[in-house]
Amino acid sequence: MIKSFQHLYDENIKAIYVLDQAPFHVMYQGFPPSNVSKKEIVKYYDEYNINDITIQRVDDDDFQGQTLRFHRESFLRKKSNMHPEKGGPSKWELYLYLYFYLKKNNPDALQTKISQIASKFGHLVLYTCPYSPQYQPAEYLNAHVKFMVKKKCKKHRTILELKNDIRDGLYGGITSCGRIHSGIDARIIDGWIRNCHSNMDHDIQFVLNFKDKNIHNLWTQNCEYSVTTQKQIKIPQMCENIVVKIGGEIFNE
Hints:
Helix content is 35%, strand content 12%. By secondary structure, the protein is an alpha+beta fold. The strands form three sheets. A four-stranded antiparallel sheet has the order 3-2-7-8, with helices on one face. A two-stranded parallel sheet has the order 1-4. A two-stranded antiparallel ribbon has the order 5-6.
């Protein structure tokens, strides 16, 4: 996309890439993905010389509000609900603490690989809040094709028939009820992009309350926002009932 953009536009024009939070979009250089083991997460603690963590388990009725401190030698122990001081932190406690530690002390480590590539060319990557298909032209494309696939659905449809229905969803065909399904062309794509921009402009002005901004002037070289100050990166649901303390400061999502 960057190569195509450079071919089409003047070098002084920069791009904003709006991406969803699919796992392959938010791969980090200095932060582990959420699907790794506890042992792998601890390796990052050793890399950053983090030797203890302080947390609160807000969903634990017996120890609610109690501050728990775990040292490096206990990181790989199993979590103990009866005697938490004798056990270790959970995987998600380690994961969330590491996230906020880096956010506070080393935010560059939370820059995604895609953001790093884009920033080399002066471009910016913005991640949408989770479950925001209204910002993604690809979601309109998926809906357009799926409509055709749904309307041609029949019992015992073969893989070859499904392949043809998907092709008709892209290039045009006739549904089971005789309706003409339009093929995807420049006019339809432009309409999807206009819809996405309209939805973005609405949220910029009425959710972020930036009345003088829209998707075309949202970001400049002097903008206060950067790839490391975004707050909408999704934290796994397992971390919702965890509070961490770093230098006396409390963090949670």
